[in-house]
Amino acid sequence: MKVAVIGGGIAGAELIRVAAPCPLEFTLIEPKKQIEMQALYPEYLGGVARLQDLAAPLKPFCERVGAHHIQEKALRLEGSTVVCERSQVEFDYAVIATGAAQNYFGIRGVENTFSINTLEETKRARRFVEDNYPERIMIMGSGLTGVEAASILAESLDASIYVIEARERVLPQFSAQTSELVERALSKRGVNILTSTQVAEVKKDCIMFTDDTCLDCDMAIWTAGVKPSQFIQDLDLPKKNGWLLVDPYLNLKSNLFAIGDCAWVEIDGRLATKTGLEAERQAKYLARHLSHLIKGRALERYSVRASTDSQVALISLGSDCAVGVVGKTCIGVPTRLIYSLKSWIDKSFIKRFK
Ligand SMILES: Cc1cc2nc3c(=O)[nH]c(=O)nc-3n(C[C@H](O)[C@H](O)[C@H](O)COP(=O)(O)OP(=O)(O)OC[C@H]3O[C@@H](n4cnc5c(N)ncnc54)[C@H](O)[C@@H]3O)c2cc1C
User: Fold this and answer.
1) Fewer beta carbons within 10 angstroms: which end of the chain, N or C?
2) Going by CA atoms, what residue is nearest to atom 37 of ligand 1?
3) What's the domain of life for this entry (predicted)?
């Protein structure tokens, strides 16, 4: 049985790692040379994490587990073939795991800001910080990425850091208790928090808001929101809000599956969050599900662990401080221990591929 896995991020790479060795013949279609741990990008930006902590080369990993690596972008699906930039990959099953793209919401000038959504972008942002010593840094968006980046930059730079959030509190997708705790931690680090503040336009050296006020800045970083990539938008498959809509077995239709950020996983009223935690769990589930399928056995339905109405997360707030969230409960102490746990989880994920 030939399985094409499109996307070698957390979900795609973990699926192959867990499934191998098995009678399935895996082909990984991934344009990058390495698998990357996005959760460590903020620490890389702040000069705390090293490249080897957050990336592992795909070639030796694929050789070890007996998978083929096609270092190309998938362009489209044609029947049971993935059409890539230069080659075509035939499959019995295909798994789509291409992640999500940055959403700029059509706001003028935002495409010209810095982002920490990919390693290349994060490297560019870090180079800018090292070469230009910006004095005023605006971080737009206060989700996990925004608050983690603000904390680490406030700790490592002698600069004024601002977090700009359109909604009424930081981390609006989390409980009010979590937002309060994180806001206090950010303020302690000297981060300026502007909530209920909407960006209208980003200019070369200032940010304009919808109430016609503006703030000067030397560096603007956009962290607010993701959307389905062009590849996903172009696929003629079941979708919800643009994401690939899977059933409780992570199946899209017939021999096609989707996992991780590109999928809309809503099972028994629980919508999966777009997090590494969910991507990894979905990958592990599908690895078992595929091996059951070829043996003609049924598997239980997938169960969502980190859902939008009951978040599970470890949020780092500097290089020695993190909080844990389980549902409505936010565990703020001991911060160092929680940070060590998060750091260990993130780094040990990458070590599995080395
Ligand atoms: C800065 C940042 C911090 C984060 N922190 C945390 C955290 O602390 N905890 C947590 O749980 N989650 C965190 N997340 C979210 C987490 O990283 C994602 O949910 C997770 O990476 C999703 O895994 P994935 O495999 O679906 O997508 P990705 O890891 O993004 O991988 C998708 C892969 O698909 C490839 N690809 C894309 N298009 C194509 C194509 N057309 N053909 C072939 N390949 C393609 C890409 O190159 C990429 O390698 C963070 C995200 C960011 C950006």
Assistant:
1) C
2) 98
3) Archaea
